[in-house]
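Workshop exercise sheet. Pairs work together: one partner reads the sequence aloud, the other fills in the structure field after running the prediction. Swap roles for the next sheet.
Pair: D.N. / O.F.
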Amino acid sequence: MKLINKIFILFFLLFPISIYAQNLQVGLYKVKISQEELSPMKQGLYLQISFYNRLFNDTVHQNIKVRLFGRESDYIKYTKLYHKHRPHSHAFYNSELDEIVILKTPNFIETFFHELSHSVLEKKCPLAPAWLNEGLAEFFEHLKFTGQGLSNQPSSQRINTIATLLRRKYNIPKLMSLSLRDWQALPQDESYRLSWGLVNALYYLNIDAFREIIKSICNGDSSMTAIEKHYPGGYQEFYKQLKKYYYNLED
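Structure field:
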């Protein structure tokens, strides 16, 4: 474990978020980070912690630790301390040390948003099914911060893929019931994109109902039971609105 001591060079950023303080700790290894890069990270942190605190009654107060690598070889060496095989992505949430580990790539900020969601949800809602856990992470990853504020502009390819799956009468209830292993075995169009699509639609169609659905799932209800309980009109109404939402967004 000598590698850990060698690379743990930290600087600390403290900034207020709502009525509480959130501490973002960024550990740098052979890499630099600019204020222009830190700014959207702060914004994304604010957005997510605000979302999850409203969901979980202002109980999300943990420090957010990030370990940022500049070289892929160093990232791989560190990752293998916790995973037997070569990593298939450029980031992961390390639950053992409660830290987000990232290789600095051109889209590392978006990756930070994705793993940040995992770091919060996996502690507050360990019962979250794969579609919800990954769907929320994908949702926050694809939000953009511009000079004019927050922007949600998913690619037309992503929208069209979801609309096509819905026209094929894709089995949404089955997707929602899958274990993480079975969910990961799906093609990415059916796993990541469709899970993002469900979260994105729930967020924009009825965010209040979505919050209650998440709470219900975290308390042990199945996804379908939670939707039947808390979405106005139940699953059938949600499914009808889901199709209309994405058909209207198509090219």
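Discussion prompt: The domain at 2-124 is CATH 3.40.30 (Glutaredoxin). What would you look at next?
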